[in-house]
Amino acid sequence: MTFRYKSKALERLGVRSWINAKNWATVIGGTWLDDRVLEAMDEVAKTFVDMYELISKVDERIAELCHVEEAHISTGSGACMGLAVAGCMAGTDYSKWMRLPHTEGMRNEVVMARGHNIAYTPQWTASGARVVEYGQAGSLGPFTRELEAAIGEDTCCVAHTLSYNVVPRGFIPLDSVVEAAHGHDLPVVVDAASMLPPVGNLHKFVDEGADIVIFSGGKAIKAPNNTGMMLGNGRGAEIIRAVREHSFPNSGWGRGFKVSKEQIVGLVTALEIFVEEGDSFYAEQMRVVESIAEELRGLPGIEVRILPNDESFHEHVYYPHVPRVLLEWGPELGFTGVDVDEAMAKEDPPIFLRSGKYYSYFTKKEWRQVDPYYLRDGEWQIVAQRLRRVLEELT
Prior knowledge:
Layout: H1 8-12, E1 19-21, H2 35-45, H3 51-66, E2 70-74, H4 77-90, H5 94-99, E3 109-113, E4 130-134, H6 144-150, E5 155-161, H7 174-183, E6 188-191, H8 201-207, E7 212-216, E8 228-232, H9 235-245, H10 261-277, H11 281-296, E9 303-307, E10 324-329, H12 337-346, E11 351-353, E12 366-370, H13 379-394
Parallel strand pairs: 1-11, 3-4, 3-5, 5-6, 6-7
Antiparallel strand pairs: 2-8, 7-8, 9-10, 10-12
Helix pairs in contact: 2-10, 3-10, 4-9, 11-13, 12-13
């Protein structure tokens, strides 16, 4: 099979073009862009626009597509987290926005569950807030009493993370968080950056009572990697409107999150495609993983399974609807997952496999996954054939 997606620009720089059988990850470039998205970005790149008008109209279109009252685009979900907290602290008070990130005298505490503390937690404090944790990591239960105890006179919001990075035994149900926070007249801000597909998740968590929900553009939506959006109803919509009035291209702390006209048009175009086509991707992805699994079955000592990640089975309580092939093998075979990674990366084109987030608890088995979300015509065959040959050579 011929690899059709090698970049000449990267080649000139001495950088390799990879096949992504890993899924979305910022460290490998996030996503590939649909030609329709690239065409829209190319068109707007050749003209000028009133950025205030563009952002206003695009926010309105995003809200319409996602069935929420308000939306705002920024430079990734991490930026949206910091901006949302800034909105919770400063509201419509111009003087407070101009003081950020100095928040003395403001309600500047973000309450969040300890079991939901992940690598992106510092983004909650980027605007000068501080995190107050409650509960335990690795223990079941809503921790309602601990949440109530963590809320104080300086609390500006309750943050909640929906992610496969959350400790599986330590996740806190969203409805418990909403009930407690709203009982104290506090907004709930949800980081759901990677919780797509299905398309319905775009409004599901707002429908369940969250005031603001944040999604990445550079993951399942297949927008530019440095885009994200916040969505909200009710009080959340009011906060989002305040954020729009005090973030780029306005002055102050929020101006630093500059989003280009190309990024803005790229996100809204990709979102339109995702809303129209996103749920149809699953059937084709399942056909791909079934074909890959069939190619890999029969290898001595290698267990091959399909993880559907649908209503019948999820490998984590928070997982998007993307099926995967799971390969597991015991230590008696004498090679590790890292050995497989290195072998898959040696040849041209190099291939990324999925190597995080799934854990074979209580065993010493090694494992790797093949994720089909970004595999295009011809690529899954390259992955399957290379992987079978690598495993045969290693065993």
